[in-house]
Amino acid sequence: MRPGHLNNYMQQYRFLWLILFFIGAGHIKAQQPLKENPLLIHSNAPLGFNNVNGETIKEAMQSITALSDARVKKISSIPADRHTVANTLLATDELMYDLTDLSQKLALIAGVNTNEQLRDAANAANEELLAYINNLYLKEGLYSALKNLAASPASKKMPANQQKFLRETLLTFEKNGMKLSVQQQKEVMDINQKLAAIGVQFDENIAKYKDSLRFTAAQLTGVPEHIRAPWRRADSTYVVNVNTSNYNTIGSYVHNSDTRRAFFVAYNNRAYPKNLAVLDSLFYYRQLLANKLGFPGYASYTVVDKMAASPETVWRFENELIKKLSPHVTADLDELRQLKQQDTSAAADSLYAWDISYYTQQLLDKKYQLNNEEVRNYFEMNNTLQGMFTVYQQLFNIEIRTTTQVPTWHEKVKAYELFKDGKKVGTFYLDLFPRPGKFTHFATFPISLYRISNGREVLPVTAFVGNFPEGDAGTPALLYHREVLILFHEFGHLLHGLLARSDIASQGPFTLKGDFIEAPSQLLENWCWEYDALKLFARHYKTGAVLSPELFEKMKRAKMVQNAANYMRYVYLGVQDFTYHDKYDSIKHKDLTAVSADLWRLMQLPYVPNTHAICSSPHLNSYGGFYYGYLWSRVFAQDMFSVFKKNGVMNSATGVKYAREILEKAATIDERQMLYNFLGRAPNTSAFFESLGLE
Questions:
Q1: Cβ atoms of 364 and 482 closer than 8 Å
Q2: By three-state DSSP, how is residue 209 classified?
Q3: What are φ and ψ of residue 415, in 5° steps?
Q4: Contact indicator for 494, 611 with CB cutoff of 8 Å
């Protein structure tokens, strides 16, 4: 499968911080730790994940909700003419910090802990906590306190970022129903609680889904031996678990079309039929929520505080992409059809979805003579990781140091500290390999956000959780180039979480507008396509030879293979998401799978009967109404990269400026202003379309 295909998949499965976008993070004044519960202590001491159990979670929930109730009461009881930045604005930030901080830790535990009961307890607690946080935005006293502050002379003297925080927080209250009657607010609270439970159920159904298919050796011809060896059973058959890694392998390498089709169908029926009913409820209650809040649909509700601002803007964006991409998609697929005809004497119209990755791979092998297995030999996991560190250290003038002084949640998890200008700025964990019960995709989990109070800093902590292939005694872990892109991308989120600074933690890096938040990490994928970066670390794991310029040029030429078809898949997913959330009234009586099948025409391929891919598409949950943001943000990513191309891709002055103007600013200023400050001009789409080969 092409790098873009897997990266596209990866983006679907993001991202617990997307929930946090709506609920904020926060700032907290110096205070006594809430008992000694490791989930509630805020300091620069190592986090005691090894001391967490079910009782710890229960105690944390009881303590945090009691404390938060008291804080809301205190803020609400301040006389109307006595509201100040300290007792109202920063106190609200303090309130949200503790709640969000606990939610982040619970999400991590639910995703990575080896104990199923503890994972379930963390999931249940986080569901309860998210509902509690949502309901805070219907607290009349809290809203009135912030309104009174906004109307006071003191608000006019606040720094720009505090004014932005106050303005956006009031919008969040109003967006969540603060102007409704008491009875209507209760209805909104009930809907929010239902939606929180539905969202958790949807993700759990995917995470807990288990299936496998059994094949003979002949049916798996084409799969490299080092990959299929672990699948072999005592009777010489092969049992292949239905997961993303195996889906990519089967789709790209298996010669047998029936095998590819069988696995395609199984993979695209994960969590079916359970999640079909869950999705039906999810879309229904989202539309109900939007209507009660005065919006015509959930998409309008979602984008009102995004860069796009309105559904009309999103549809224009998607339709422009469809217009530009469609002719090139036709050409891309015709190339694969010709290859399939040569290979099988198939009819000209017999190209199917399960053929795409396979014949793309064949195209790379035959026309471009690019052997991904050969390329993989240059990206041994540890060496690639250290190489990525080298690139980012040079680019951003930072230093990464290994540490063994902190407890982790698993023996294979490694911890590191990040330094800038000789000063420690944060801690991060890498949990890179699969294990039973673990979160099955790729994501950066914020654990603790940066905060400062009375001159005292609590440094941020993040974790990159992934599922890269793990080596064995005979062969080290080797990465396909598409997996190197994932590594660079996710580590970009991680760096953003560690370098961002704000005196208001609610303006942290994960509270950027949802249709911009991917841009900083998408930008960093570009270094995987720059020889000046790759030559620093891409070495053959056996010989130590550096990746040759000739092989690199093959990789660059092959990058554009099926590019239009690949990007049309992004468009399809974005249009699918927006159709469910902006056109709900016109499709609510239709079968949800039929709606998805109708939109599949954008892909210019026959829809595969009896598949229900929407049941295992978490972006419909976590990205509800703004999956378009993946391509929207890539426009800005490529525009920013044009500055690096002009100045030199390893130019540290440009990298330091980028870190200062984009990463460190977090959400303290408007995203367009942030872009203008770095670019020196208004952003445009030229670099984006050029990167697709369409300019």
A1: no
A2: coil
A3: -115, 150
A4: no
Q: Is the pLDDT of residue 496 over 90?
A: yes
Mean pLDDT of the chain: 91
Question: Is the torsion defined by CA of 305, 308, 312, 318 positive or negative?
Answer: negative
Q: How far apart are CA 495 and CA 499, in angstroms?
A: 6
Q: Write the pLDDT tens digit of every residue in 532-591.
A: 999 999 999 999 999 999 999 999 999 989 999 999 999 999 999 999 999 999 999 999
**pLDDT over 80 (residue 17):** no
- The answer regarding whether domain 3-206 maps to CATH 1.20.1050.40 reads yes
Task: Give span(s): CATH 3.40.390.10, the chain.
Answer: 381-557
Distance CA 451, CA 459 (A): 7
Q: Which of 108-117, 168-177, 467-476, 605-614 has the lowest mean pLDDT?
A: 467-476
Give SS3 for 29. coil
How do strand 423-431 and strand 238-241 relate by DSSP bridges?
unpaired
**Both tokens assigned to 255:** 């010669």
Q: Per the structure block, which two tokens stand in for 441?
A: 């995709």
Cβ atoms of 9 and 244 closer than 8 Å: yes
> In Å, how far from its chain's centre is CA 396?
23
Q: Tens digit of pLDDT for each residue in 344-367?
A: 887 767 899 999 999 999 998 888
Instruction: Say how far apart CA 232 and CA 235 lie, in whole Å.
Output: 8
d(CA 352, CA 337) in angstroms, rounded, equals 9
Multiple choice CATH, 381-557, 3.40.390.10, 3.40.50.880, 2.60.40.10, 3.40.50.300: 3.40.390.10
Q: Grade residue 15 by pLDDT with cuts at 50, 70 and 90.
A: very low
Return the biggest CA–CA distance within the chain: 82
pLDDT for res 21: 34
Q: How far apart are CA 489 and CA 634, in angstroms?
A: 12
Residue pLDDT, tens place only, 321-350: 999 999 999 999 999 999 999 988 877 678
Q: Is the peptide bond before 224 cis (omega within 30 degrees of 0)?
A: no
Taking each helix axis from N to C end, the angle separating 274-292 and 563-582, rounded to the nearest 10 degrees, works out to 60
Closest CA to 110 of 134, 91, 128, 88: 128
What is the three-class DSSP state of 665? coil
Reported pTM: 0.85
Q: What is the DSSP string of 212-277?
A: EEEE-TGGGTTS-HHHHGGGB-TTS-EEEE-SHHHHHHHHHH---HHHHHHHHHHHTTTTTTHHHH
